[in-house]
Design a protein that fits this description.
The chain is of the alpha+beta class and about 325 residues long. It has seven helices and 15 strands. Keywords: Signal.
Amino acid sequence: MKKMFNKVLFLSVAVLLSNNLLAQETICFKNGLEKPSLIETTPLDGEVCKGIQTLEDMKNSGWEVLDIKLEPVGNKFNYSYYFYKNDNSLSSVASQKNVNQQLTLSKGEFSIKPIGAKITNIDNNKSNIDVGNLIVGQSGIVVHIYDNDKRLIVSNAKVISSNENSSIVEFFPFNDLSQDALPTSNRSVAINDVLILNYMYNSSLLIAPTLDSFQTVRENFKLNNFMHSDIFAAKLKVENKPYPTKEDIQKFAIEQNLGTIFFVLDNKVYVVDTKTFTILESYAFAYESNEKQMPFYTRVEEIEESIFNLSFFDFFSGDKKLSYDEYYKRILGLK
């Protein structure tokens, strides 16, 4: 049992590292610029720019500008550019078109592309941002930038209302990577911090009933990096939990730094925000209706419940008699 747990831990760490590599971020800066007009053609300093890459070079390499910080110092100017890039964004356009052709959207097209916005106001732990048409329940992080190119995640954030022109986000604690052995910051969200919505949305957990549905989703959503369900199943096996609850699924996804969870049921794919458990999008999705596996498709066998995990109420619970579709409908709050 201990060996299995160590293997699960090793695999989880490996996947977490690979997920982080898929979403890159960096800051390039230039201090002491005499004219703002020179910033477009001046090589920038920083870990990636290295005094060689210009703003245009970075954009041509697939980097997107999430935030710009301009600070006048005397008669000169200091610039900092916050860049973000999904390596998966380099996938061919044909692959993305393939998704749209094979899946019928039930509403507007869902995007995993990060959205950046400057925090310009804070009122009662909320902020109004000039980005409209967002999904209520969409989440992200708030980043504080200091010393030109250093970054610190200071908070989570979620969209609580949105219209065509603007949205309101609410902040809540960032405990995703909690580690008792490491120091934590008491810093809270401040003016000029940067909000990044859709953070790690391209890193996902996939809950599917069959091998066919599991493979088909991964084939269609090529811009997402899916953690294999075997890793989650191995954890459930170690913990003797054959019927994962909403809290079990959400906790695991957050611990693995996954931004979204995909649920396949009733010939649909539901894309759920990990931190808010909001359904962001659903797609009509056809797959072969073979025998559906509980708790989901996995190669891990015999996930058995321990008698010590049973409570008095478990004997009267109907959850264990539900079919795969019924079980996950209940978890997602669907009727």
